[in-house]
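Q: What residues go here?
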């Protein structure tokens, strides 16, 4: 593989305005460890790295891109103006400027963010997804009588389990509508109501553009949650360390999966990745019922790639170390 030295701009988000002089200090903090790991890796790979934190001003980014035109942007940005709706716009800008970037393009970012639109496309491509109803604020359903319960009620376009709690699982129409209204009003967000898939939760990392490499599945475990209790990744289950510890919630290499089923899972995930037009790297989240039925829950372009994130842990299990994955992501761009 060619390893020409590249001038790389590492683009990331800021939730408030911070001067570039402060980046070195920022990168030393826990919340920025993935960025710091990446900077070090890019340097180890022999590249030149500049950093740019994007908050609410696009002009300084334009200035950086034109005055210090990089060979490539390593894109860790997920928002502009502190708003995730603008995630696709940032790479759209790079496209207009003819600057190469890592990961997914604007179309895949836009489609994947919408848990309804993406499921419509997946269903067209025969990728199995839960049954669903979209409940927008402008046109909320008056009843959900014919929906199959239990249902799972979640924001249509949010991420990181925002808006997902124990009451997201609704055992009847009344509870589903109540949760829908809560999300409409309190989070000011549209809603998707899905068939609740009771089963194992798996994450499959994928690397590639046309030819895809799937990593061995990771699994979300709930070791201390009693048998028979519903298990899913609420906001607390993702972000509250005490809560995670109490209920034994953690990811790890997937437990035993029959060979035939694993092949089917990998095929399904690759189909999902292709159907939504992902590039570079992605992670497909799915659930598998005890009878072996597979359901894609979510396709994540540009997933988290810190060393201890599922994507990198799964790559490591395949013998691809961190730098090797970073190099592959650059090559794919
Ligand atoms: N249809 C469903 N059936 C069962 N669990 C679900 C369903 N949809 C979401 N979940 C649970 O909620 C979590 C978050 O949902 P997801 O759609 O991945 O949103 P986010 O973008 O917030 O990660 C999932 O990891 C899973 O545990
Ligand atoms: Mg998810």
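A:
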């Amino acid at each position: 593989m060619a390893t020409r030295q590249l001038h790389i701009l590492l683009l990331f988000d800021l939730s408030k305005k911070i001067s570039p002089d402060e980046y070195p200090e920022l990168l030393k903090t826990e919340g920025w460890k993935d960025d710091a790991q990446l900077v070090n890796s890019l340097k180890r790979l022999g590249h030149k790295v500049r950093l740019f934190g994007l908050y609410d001003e696009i002009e300084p980014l334009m200035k950086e891109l034109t005055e210090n035109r990089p060979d490539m942007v390593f894109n860790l940005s997920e928002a502009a103006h502190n708003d995730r709706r603008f995630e696709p716009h940032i790479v759209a800008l790079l496209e207009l400027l003819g600057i190469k970037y890592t990961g997914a393009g604007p179309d895949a970012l836009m489609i994947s963010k919408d848990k309804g639109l993406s499921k419509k496309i997946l269903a067209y491509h025969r990728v199995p997804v839960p049954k669903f109803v979209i409940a927008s604020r402008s046109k909320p359903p008056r009843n959900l009588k014919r929906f199959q319960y239990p249902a799972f009620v979640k924001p249509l376009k949010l991420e990181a389990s925002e808006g997902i709690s124990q009451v997201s699982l609704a055992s009847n129409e009344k509870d589903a509508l109540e949760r829908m209204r809560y999300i409409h009003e309190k989070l000011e967000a549209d809603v998707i109501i899905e068939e609740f898939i009771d089963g194992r939760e798996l994450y499959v990392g994928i690397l590639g553009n046309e030819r895809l490499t799937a990593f061995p599945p990771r699994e979300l475990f709930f070791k201390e949650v009693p048998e028979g209790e519903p298990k899913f990744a609420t906001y607390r289950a993702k972000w509250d360390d005490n809560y995670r510890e109490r209920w034994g919630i953690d990811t790890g290499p997937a437990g035993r999966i029959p060979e035939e089923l694993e092949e089917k899972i990998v095929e399904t995930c690759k189909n999902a990745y292709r159907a939504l037009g992902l590039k570079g790297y992605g992670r497909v989240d799915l659930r598998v019922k005890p009878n072996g039925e597979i359901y894609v829950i979510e396709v994540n372009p540009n997933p988290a790639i810190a060393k201890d994130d599922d994507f990198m842990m799964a790559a490591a299990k395949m013998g691809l170390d961190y730098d090797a994955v970073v190099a592959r992501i650059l090559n794919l761009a």
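A: Context that may help when evaluating the design: Residues 5 and 47 are 5 Å apart (CA to CA). The chain has a mean pLDDT of 95.
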